Amino acid sequence: MTDELYHPPADLARDANVTAADAERLRAEADADLDAFWLARARDLRWEREPTVGYDGGEHPFVTWFADGRLNVTVNCVDRHVDAGRGEKVALYWEGEPGDEVAVTYADLQVRVAQAAHALTALGVGRGDVVVVYLPVLVETVVVMLACARIGAVHSMVFGGFSAEALRFRVADGRAKVVVTTDGQYRRGKAVPVKENADLAVEGSDVEHVLVVRRTGQDVPWTAGRDVWWHEITAEQPGEHDAEAFDAETPLFLIYTSGTTGRPKGLVHTMGGYLTQTAWTAWACFDHRDDDVYWCQADLAWVTAHTYEVYGPLANGVTQVLYEGTPDTPHRGRHFEILAKYGVTVYYTAPTLVRTFMTWGTGILEGHDLSRLRLLGSVGEAINPEAWRWLHEHVGGGRCPIVDTWWQSETGAAMVAPLPGAQPLKPGSATRALPGISVTVVREDGTEADPDEGGLLVVDRPWPAQARTVWGDPDRYVDSYFATFREQGWYTAGDGARIDADGFVWLQGRVDDVMNVSGHRLSSIELESALVSHPRVGEAGVIGAPDATTGQAIVAFVVLRGEATGDEDLSADLRAHVTRELGPVARPKQVHVVPVLPKTRSGKIMRRLLLDLASGREPGDTTSIVDPAALDGVRDALVSTDPSVDTD
User: Fold this and answer.
1) 3-class DSSP string for 418-458
2) Is 585 inside a domain boundary?
3) Which of 104, 245, 324, 347 would be 48's cystine partner, CB 3.0–4.6 Å?
4) Nearest to 378, CA basis, from 358, 343, 406
5) What pLDDT is attached to residue 3?
6) Could you count the other beta carbons within 10 Å of the beta carbon of residue 615?
């Protein structure tokens, strides 16, 4: 409900990095002079040559920011904290899935990064070379990212669970010089081989070396002259490294879109603009403080981790947690065990995981002291109001504000998000655009939508962390993101949204997920939120299947909470519940109970696969799916005679 407000605790409202008065002042400054606003944020970093120019206003959308500045990203994330006397502060608490652990101080991290930078240089890696990193969540993963940034190489992170074919595409597209991988990784209690996939992916490529981190100790195939052990080459290197400064527009990393429509796009992010917006939004949105223990639980291959697990927190000198494993290994309370063990104060997670916790029940929290938590965050897709309330009440103890963030791989950093001490919150809304950012909701003809009218979310002025292009394909960059409103110069996010009368933004999911039922536009997020608000439903995925009468028919797939089971009354009950929440037009035609929903590796529901199966088609590209067995559960539900399926 749009009138349901949660106000920040009095101490946060008073002591936050950005208070209500600060927020209004900053917004006014940005509206008056966007360049001056972002130049002031840039000057919080250490520059060898401080920029005098912000946005260039040039060949839009091929923009530049801070183009006359020079800096080193890694110096800002590591060296300057050591130089300031904070070298003994813990930078990373790392915990492996089997329970092994290590604490890495900023001084330790500086030495590790120096050795890795020298090692990469010894392997022939230099400025502009692409290094593909195919690793799980390890300390070495962070180290190699920072080492690449230090020497001006471009890192391209690939999720350690991706197939050899997905890795091969990224190696070839980036024309990688080196691939960094591991002998194996731990996944749900098992040591899973990894290097074999890397070997398959580099066959016939221009890769000169495969750098291998020893994690599980298992035997691996070895190509003499090409393959190099990480521990051997880094041990030979000095622990000091003179860092070169680079122009602000030097490429920092490639991040690939999921490829659910067409082949994946390699988005290019550059050093100065990206780090400026990343560091400031991390400080402002997560209210970073010197005594914080922060945990962003994203895999290091995702853009979430680039921005709010590596570069943002480290630029702000934060202590943070890294966890290698899955949330249910060796038990379903593992996340809460870690939160309690390290005294985590700020926890940034995904709505899909929150909904999974809901299906597991509150027993997973028992025995874990979460009293140090003071702030929670959400990312990946719009969080259902019921999941927001569950997170706030059960994990946050009813005291922790939730920073619900909207942004994308393309935007590089948060765009719409709360400043937690500066404004009230509405469950399910990402609140307002951050200072220095401007978004609006428009109709297909480009006219501004009325309050609470759904439309297309666009970014209507430039921002520093914007992806600069698609690697090797600038035309595709323009066609993908700027062609729709090229005359206005607007970035089209591909998300549907509405803005309420208070100016709060409500995401409605990908435009492709908005369905048309008898002429009524309904969003998957609204329908799924209505289903999740039912006490027996923990997760829901909704699609619009082809229908000869209504154009599209609403088909829902639900995962039940805790010990709840399907019965003959469930379908009717859920359909009636959605009707009460959203009206008769939103009543699902079918409701299917499934054990698990198909999701991407980053936790997003793969609705297109649900649509393929519900339409009788074989599913398309399943490269990104985290659990292929989920499709079998959907198939079984579709052909079953379970009474919780209603087709009238």
Assistant:
1) CCCCCCCECCCCCECECCCCCEEEECCCCCECCCCCCEEEE
2) yes
3) 245
4) 406
5) 63
6) 11
Tell me what percent of the chain is helix, strand and coil, each rounded to the nearest 5.
Answer: 30, 25, 45
CA dihedral defined by 156, 160, 165, 169, rounded to 10 degrees? 0
CA 55 to chain centre: 26
pLDDT at 568: 64
Q: Is 623 within a domain?
A: yes
Per-residue model confidence as pLDDT tens digits over 93-123? 999 999 999 999 999 999 999 999 999 999 9
Residue 109 phi/psi, 5-degree rounding, is: -60, -40
**Is position 16 within any domain?**
no
Cβ-based neighbour number of residue 88 at 10 Å: 10
Listed in sequence order, the residues at least 6 apart from 125 whose beta carbon sits closer than 8 Å to its beta carbon are 131, 148, 151, 153, 177, 178
Closest to 124 measured CA to CA, from 70, 82, 178, 160: 178
CA 167/CA 115 separation, integer angstroms:
26
Question: Which domain, by its residues, includes 597?
Answer: 518-639
Domain-embedded: residue 594? yes
- Total number of domains constituting the chain: 1
Residues in the chain: 648
**Quick one: DSSP state of residue 364?**
G
CATH of the domain at 593: 3.30.300.30
Q: What is the pLDDT of residue 606?
A: 87
Burial class (CB in 10 A: 0-12, 13-18, 19+), 551: middle
Q: What pLDDT, on a 0 to 100 scale, did the predictor assign at position 601? A: 67
How many Å apart are CA 299 and CA 322, to the nearest integer?
Answer: 9
pLDDT at residue 646 in the model: 43
For residue 80, is pLDDT > 60?
A: yes
pLDDT band, residue 319 (cuts 50/70/90)? very high
Q: Which helix (H) or strand (E) holds 641?
A: none
- The β-bridge partners of 105 are 90
> Angle of helix 34-42 relative to helix 20-32, nearest 10 degrees?
120
Please give the pLDDT value at position 120: 98
The answer for residues whose C-beta is within 8 angstroms of residue 4's C-beta and 6 or more apart is: 385, 426, 427
Q: Give the per-residue pLDDT at 449.
A: 96
Tell me what the pLDDT averaged over the chain comes to. Answer: 92
Mean pLDDT across the stretch 127-150? 98
